Structures are given as C-alpha cells and as structure tokens.
Predict the 3D structure of the following.
Amino acid sequence: MKILFINPSIREEDNPKHVPYGEALVAACSEKWFNAQVALLDLNILRSVLKPEQLDEELRTSLEADDWDIVATGGITTAYSSVKRTLEIAKPLCPDSLFVAGGGLVTSQPLEMMHWLPQIDVGVLGEGEYTIGEVIEHCHDRDFAKTQGVVYRDRDRKPRLNKERPVMPDLDVLPYPAWDLIHTDLYFRNSSLLLSEEAMLAKRRLDIAASRGCSFACKFCYHLGVIGDLKTHYRPDGQLDVGFDNLGVSRTLRWHSVEYIVDMVKYAKSKWDIDFVDFLDENLVAMHWASPNRDWLFRLSEAWVDAGLQPKCVRQGVEHDPEKCREGIHVGGAAHAGLIQPEILKAMKRMGFTYVTYGLESFDDRLLKEMGKAATGALNERAVKITMDHGIRPIPNQIIGFPDEDFESIRTNMRMWQKLGVVVSPFLCTPYPGSQYYYEYKDKILDQYDGDLESFVADLGDATKPTAIISKNFNAIELVGLREAMVNFNWRLIDKYEEIWRRNHGLPPRQHTISPEPPSK
Amino acid sequence: MSKHLKANFKVKRKKSSSSKPEKDKVAEKFEREALRHLGGSIAFVMKRKEFVWTGEEKSDE
C-alpha cells in the first residue's frame, strides 16, 4: 500500500511558517499502525524555493514517481483553491489511485466539496488518524458504506455521507508526526515569528499540538470537527448533512500527558536542536482548568524544567541573548482572557513562555456577549496587564465587523488600545464555513457572491481582507476605511464619517460630535 | 556620533548619553518589525516604563 500525501499551498502572501502537523500525524499513523508506505510532497514549503512552474513540475514528477494506491490531500478551508488546482493536475496522472481529501475544508462542507471537487473519491471528516486505516482497508474494493466519518462516492459516483466518527479518547496513543518526511531545514529558515523578542530571534522553531479542543463557543470559530461537536443530522429532504453543536454540550477536551509532551520535545531537541516551540493548541488554559486537579500547566512547567528544557536565560533571570542562551527551548501559545491567572502565568514564564496569544476580539461588552466570547472588556484588560507584568508578551488579537459593530464599539476599542498601548490592525469578522455565523448569515453571504457559494469559499483568506461581511451597520468598504482610521487613532475622521453615515441612514446627529479625549494613560 | 549631523566643526560628544542598553534595543527592534508587518495575528502591546500593573494579582516571585 503506497500513499502520496500532498500538502497544498496556503497563505501564499506570507512565507510558509508552520509544518503540516495534522497531515504528518495521519502519515505517521498510516505507516506505524497500518503498515503503509508513505511519501509527503509539501507544496507549501516548496513554494519558498521553487518558482510556480517548477512547483507544478515537481507535483507532476511526484505523481508519476510510483504507482500510488492512494493520493491524499486536504487542509483548512482557506486552502480550497490550492487543493482544487492540485486535484485537477493530479487526477489525470493517477486515474486508478483512490483520491482522498481531509481536514477542515471537507469537514465543514462535505457534500459541497464532493460536488465542487469531482476528483475526490473519499472525504475524511474530523480526525483522520483512525479513519485512514479503514480507507486503506477498503482502498481496492471501494466499499466505504460502513466507514464512520467519511463522505464517499457510491457505484454511481453519487456522494454518500456516513455518520460521524467519535473522537479518539486518548491522544497519547498517537505516534509523533512523521517529521522525517518534512523539510525541516526549509521550515527552520522561517522560524522567526513576530510575536515576541525570543520568537523573532528563533532559528529552529517547531510547532507542536499538546491538546485538542476549546471549552468556549465563540460564534466566529470552527474547530475542524476534532472536539466532539461535529454531529451529522438528517435534513428535511432526507439527506444526511453535517452540523455543529454550538452550545458546547458535546465538547470533548483532550490533552496529552505532560510526559508525552516533554518526551516529544526532547526527541525533537535531540534530533533537530530546536530552540523554540510554538504550541498550535486552540486554548492551552482551557485544558489546565479541565484537567482533574486543575494543574496541567503547572505539571507541564515542572516536567519541562526537570527535563532541562527551561531556557538558560530564564533559569539565570537575565534577558535573552541568542549568542549566550543556547540551552533550553522558548515557548509560545494561546489562552483565553477569562481563564488566565497570575499563578498560571508564573508557571508559563518559568517554563519559557515568551508570548501568549489572546483572542480578545473586542473590548466592547455588548459585542463580546453577542459573539459568545465569555469575556468582558475588563477581563481582556486584566489579561493584557497581568501577562505583561509576568514578563510575557500578550498578543491582543482584535476583530471588527461583528454583526452589531457600531461607532461606539469602535471608539471603545480605540480608547482601550490607547490606554494599554495595544498596537493592532484588526481582522475582519469572517463567517468561515462551520462557524455559527456561517449558518446564521448564509443568506447574507450568498447575497454578496451572487448566490455562488464556491466563489465565497475560494475567496476566503486569513480574514485580514474583506470577503463576506456580516455587519448590520457597515459594508466591506466602510469597515476597511474605519479600520484604517482606528489603526491611526484618527478620531476626527471617524466623527466626520459618523455624521455622513447618520445622515445617509436617516438618523439624528450624534449628541457629542467630537470624540472625547482619550483617557489618560 | 550621528551619521546624519552635518557641521563645519567637530562636535563635542560622539555618543548619545541616552544610548539604550542591549535589551531595550532588541525590544525596540521587535516592536519596529511587528509594526512594519502589522495586521491580523501580528499585534503587540508596547513595552513602556510607565506601563506598570499595580494591581493585587501579581503572583509571588
């Protein structure tokens, strides 16, 4: 059994910075659990060293390099265009191979993807580590009727969606990702991340996932079907389709044991001499609070230090100097402002954390409540302050263009940015497929793409540029302009635009036409 | 000495008295680079001397 995994290009406006962790895990399971021979063609990293025409040639050469039983690709929704192009090139070259696609793009829209991507024979929803075993088993008879967690084509090439596969109970059974199949040397060239001084100076960064899931139900978020919220259901027309439990009652938070994580990092350190670990986890602190004794991060920090992974500069209590500090590994990861506590930050700092990313989104309580963030402006402010106070950089992610965004919420954010010293150019609220906003505003999305859902999906990027806008008050042009004024603290421009906006909407002038002076620092 | 100051005499001091220590230079470089690439997940909170959290919540060192 020979499998060719193809990692598509993604976020082509930036250097490829992150190893294809999920794909490398499924490749490792295919090899170690199911005895497959596996190869990985990583188009995303190769685009950093090859020209586009060379990249296509490399794809063709790899597809013709052997008789592949399975050609597997996939990724998150924003990789859609790249996946489509890859499949269009690949299918004619390997007409007898079973074409498998997985990841977030198939999970959120399995039936649409089977329609838009006719080359796909089997789509894998949610976690693929066990599912790939059954796909391998039925590769030649192509009978997937009893395989959980797939959408497949029947004898008439008609798509059939099966029931979801329950998430795996124990992450520690997983082998390490097939890092040997990844061009780590090329990824190390892009180690630097502008998230902290240490991350910026990193020379050999590797990404690691220590957990799966998040306990929150933010309406803009989609969890790739790996947290237990993916549920199939019958539509009124009798067709099985996917949906997501947005109330969070079926969430299954899972995390690796601290021993597994530390052993994996020690292995990576011994093999590649890594100097930085970026935790890919959605929300590390949620795992801490969900762990039986609410001590997961405390134990991880302790085990990290005991294993000699604590950076030398942290141990000595001095500033990081990359020339002198060559022992240990610095760290970064994500948390939730409502769950962070000083004692957790202390443990994180001791371990070598240099930044904590917070999806603060907004400082406006009304918006935070509507989006289901389970935080307040005050909690966001507190998170920024106590994180700074512990010598860790908080990354204050912001979004504008929520359904109820208005001039006051915009000013609330600007006041708080000024007060805290936040420097940010916010994301634009984007209803990614699989998120609650996607289902809630699907008609509004279709309106903006003349009813062509595929165009919307192909247009999706990292939410820095406008696609479908779901704000009730502002269109895409207005939001881009308002963001520009916010970033530059141009209060006058916002006041003036509000005058025009109110006039155009038949509303009375704002009571105070001049924005108040920002609060003193 | 400033690379850009032009004078028809030799100025008294070659180095600024406010030369910053190395750690501040790294922090400045980071913030400058982050500002240059600002957008999306590239965001930061400025490190300022006057920015001190005096709340009760700092963990014991």
Notes: The mean pLDDT of chain A is 95. The longest helix of chain A spans residues 258-272. Chain A is about 40% helix and 15% strand. The CA atoms of residues 193 and 200 of chain A lie 5 Å apart.
